[in-house]
Amino acid sequence: MYDEASTYMRERSELISRRLATFAFGWLGTLLIWLLVFAAEGRLTVAAVVFFGLAAATLRMALVTTRADPGAARVLPVVVWTCVALGLGCGGLVHSVGAYGEILAFLLLTLYLMSALLFAWGWSAELTLLLTTLGPWIMAFDAFPLFVPMAELGAAVTIGAGLALGVAEASARYVQQVLRRRRAQHEATIALQASRDAYRDLAEKAPDLIWAADCEGRLTYVNEALAHFLGLSAPAAVGRMITDFVTHHPDNPDFPALFARLRAGESLPPTLLESMTPRGPRWLEATATPFADEHGAVIGVRGIDRDVTERRAAEEALRASEARYRGLVESQHELVVRMDPTGHFTFVNDAYATTFGRTTAELLGQSFLCFVHPDDHVRIAAATAEIAKPPHRTCVEIRNLTAAGVRWIAWEGGVVVDTGGRMIEAQAVGRDVTERRVSDTNLRESEERFRSAFDDAAIGMALTTTDGRTLRVNPALCAMLGYTEAEMLAATPEDVVHPDDRQALAADRARLGDGQAPFYRAERRYRHRDGHLLWVHVTASMVRDVTGAPLYFLGQIQDITERHVAEEALRDSMADLRRSEEKLRLLAQRQVLIREEERKRVGFDLHDDVCQELVGVGILVESLRRKLAPMSAEHAAEFERVVRYLGEVIEHLRLLARELRPLLLRDLGLDGSLRSLADGMASPTLRIAAEFPAPVPRLDEETEVIVYRIAQEALTNAVRHAGARAIAVTVSTGDETLVLEVRDDGRGFDPAARPAVALGLASMEERALALGGRLDICSAPGEGTRVTLVCPLGGRGLGRVRELAAPSPTRSSSHPSGATTPRAAARD
């Protein structure tokens, strides 16, 4: 079971062990400097050198003890009592050289602050050090000469002790927060790895054939489905070249050229290839996508394949059927023409061209009336009027002007109309009826060709009457459904259709019978003779006689069961993948809020605690300098150096606190803070304008902070890297949406070629994701850069993340010791 307290104690012990060497060098260096000062003043004694050696030996023993087991519980007491020994040794060293008691006080204050800052051991350990070192010093107080009155020195020592306690506790809290943040990041990494494992499990269980390969085409991963398809185990397939499993079919792609495209970063669209398997050659539909390393270099390829052997066979059968149909039309003795709404030819078959003594090219674009006897133009007009009305079919016998002279031809025509009833195309079939014998012969030949095309079709075909009787079925349909021809002829379409699809079947047949549509296409469920269901694709049309009366239905049935099952499985797989991606997105959003909360806490601690305490120290040092005046130039310079160093530290900590926590947002809002930011970053050579077309409403704190951070990062990039001379920051709101735009006229860059370690851009994108918005970066070399954030007002994208994130602890401004702090003293 996880014990947070014991874990923290062990990590704190390890921290103290690591920093003990730094403390040792710092403390010995401090003592050495004072020994050199005493030597220069002629007051260095052997006892002082001995005390220095004892201090070095004490630190050496502490280092050996703690390094034996850095995480042990004994580390803290060993280091505390080592510091106590060093503090007591300071008293002996100062007394041996006869220095002022203030020097001892300064050394002790240095010991307190150095240990508090480096070891971060909290107020209790620091208080132990204070009591065990100050007690003996107070008892031996009369042994040290004083430069300032005892009351003033006592006040300074008390304030310094309180400061040391505050610094120790603040450092301990900061270290504890850092350790918690590291543990949270570690837990998030574990969760991310679990998500990746779940995705891998999904790939292993997917029915699709999933694989990965290097840039040379060598397999680096195959799922179980693909290994089974290839007749190998997954480990046996890994390391083999993809081309080892591909046949030499002429329709297969050029693999060297294909992988060259993939290495260039181009994705492979669905591509058909023939693969060799234990079941023989099988056709696959493959898609592939390259993937890159953190530097953007392509290092491999991922792909998903599907077995489409049956679909390709059906497509080839369909193409063959269409070719047979076209050949049938082209070779017919009937005259077949298609015309546009104006009556000009868009297609004529060879029979028509031969009959009229023209080539096909010469006839295309000609008017149908050019080859009609003038006396029959009236009949053509009547037929045209009739065909314009449902059922858009007509039969007419007219005299045509052929190469052999005037011939009587019987034309049967129909039109295709749009939903508004307007004609799109007309088609007519003509027969020369000048000699009925020729007409009868042509008719018998046509029927024979139809029978052959019907029986030899690779897909199921059936002829049924308008009252539901089955007239004819081909062998392919019998094999598909498992019935004999006699059984099929004795059944009706409703007998093999799933009960839930019978109503739709009746409606479609009624539409064909009424002439509402020339044909229909539908996917239905058919029942096999052994009871299982098949998914089929049905294409049906109505065959009519010369008068337009319905004769029978012609249906084409294609088995699509495997495709339908594969599509359902693919949809389920994609749904699981989307859920995994959503989980990853929520984890990334949680990371953003955790980091912002940590920055805010640290900023409060630095600004409200450490900086104020250091200001108080500076005031006390300055007060002490005035009280000690007049003093030597050397001592005055030392005091000046201490005050200057304190000022630099305070200013650095304040700048760091402002970076961690934008304080202006609370008072000025987003628009005022951005104006202040723009004014602060502007210079005589750089103009920064903040534009707000309309007042920006106050938003929740998280949204304002994240928008401000994105604007701050974009401005920093433009100033540091783009060499911009003018920058414009625009914030607009409307329709519950906030739009932030930062434009500069700098040198620009290629977003596609940006390095993978561009932490600033990645940070902006991550914050935009946390808001539930998007970040667009538009730039080109020499054309400046535009960064645009679009997000919902009020940070709606953070709602779910707030539920996942742990609540922030309440800050306290009181010091544990209850002692008067330098800041309080400064106010007094």
What does this structure look like?
With 828 residues, this protein is of the alpha+beta class. It contains 25 helices and 20 strands. Strands 2-1-5-4-3 form a five-stranded antiparallel beta sheet, with helices on both faces. Strands 7-6-10-9-8 form a five-stranded antiparallel beta sheet, with helices on both faces. Strands 12-11-15-14-13 form a five-stranded antiparallel beta sheet. It is elongated. The two termini are 50 Å apart. Residues 795-828 have low confidence and may be disordered.
Keywords:
elongated, 828 residues, five-stranded antiparallel β-sheet, 54% helix
First-last Cα distance = 50 Å
Radius of gyration, whole Å? 45 Å
Structural class: alpha+beta
Q: Tell me roughly what share of residues is in helical segments.
A: 40-55%
Largest sheet: 5 strands, antiparallel
Quaternary structure of the protein: single chain
Sheet-strand content, in percent, reads 15-25%
Number of separate helices = 25
Shape: elongated
Kindly report the spatial arrangement of strands forming the biggest sheet.
Answer: 2-1-5-4-3
| Poorly predicted regions | 795-828
pLDDT averaged residue by residue: 80
What is the number of beta strands?
Answer: 20
